[in-house]
Write a structure and sequence with these properties.
Elements (H helix, E strand, L loop, with lengths): L1 E7 L12 H10 L3 E5 L5 E6 L4 H16 L5 E4 L1 H9 L13 E7 L5 H8 L6 E6 L2 E6 L10 H8 L3 E5 H12 L2
Antiparallel strand pairs: 1-3, 1-4, 2-3, 5-7, 5-8, 6-7
Helix pairs in contact: 3-6
């Protein structure tokens, strides 16, 4: 069995797409996954699966959510090792950040095209910095994510791939939770 982390996009945000975590955990068990544990309300589930294809696993979870809750939720599945590599690859880790600076990782469902990357990179400015590495976009929001134009929706539209964003603390906690399974 392999340990995975499912990152759900856009649930429990301002009352939209409400998904109680206890029901989500039960859904994962009903779908045949083992040891499912949720972390915070934004849609993070650590679980074990015998299935090896992450795209198929994500599609199975998406179909289960649609059937149970009646709405579509994009899901990106990563291993704890991949989240650990993303955290270790933070290009802003050695910089002294000012008060209010926050780093986020936007996890991409697949690699974007070179042209899409160039289009997104045009939006680097004094308020928002970004670095694209592998299937992650690192965002340094100097005035906080709520004031950044590099929202998940914006990045998704520019790159043309599904994605979901987490802060560094959440990423670290998900790795810890996965290691406890």
């Amino acid at each position: 069995m392999t340990t995975y982390i499912a990152l759900l996009r856009g649930i429990n945000v301002s009352g939209h797409k409400p998904v109680p975590m206890a029901e989500l955990q039960k859904l994962f068990e009903k779908l045949g996954f083992k040891g499912a544990k949720t972390f915070i309300q934004s849609g993070n589930v650590v679980f074990k699966s015998a299935e090896g294809d992450r795209k198929e696993t994500a599609a199975k979870i998406e179909a289960g959510i649609l059937k149970k809750f009646g709405f579509e939720v994009p899901v990106i599945v990563r291993t704890p090792e991949e989240l650990g590599a993303a955290l270790a690859g933070n290009p802003y880790a050695k910089r002294k950040l000012a008060d209010g600076d926050r780093v986020y990782i936007t996890y991409l469902g697949e690699a974007p095209s070179r042209d899409a990357i160039k289009a997104l990179e045009k939006h680097i400015d004094a308020i928002d910095e970004l670095t694209i590495k592998n299937n992650e976009v690192y965002i340094l929001a100097h005035k906080g994510y709520g004031n950044s134009k590099l929202s998940n929706t914006f990045v998704e539209k520019k790159l043309g791939v599904r994605c979901t964003t987490r802060n560094l603390e959440t990423t670290g906690k998900l790795i810890e939770l996965a290691e406890s399974l």
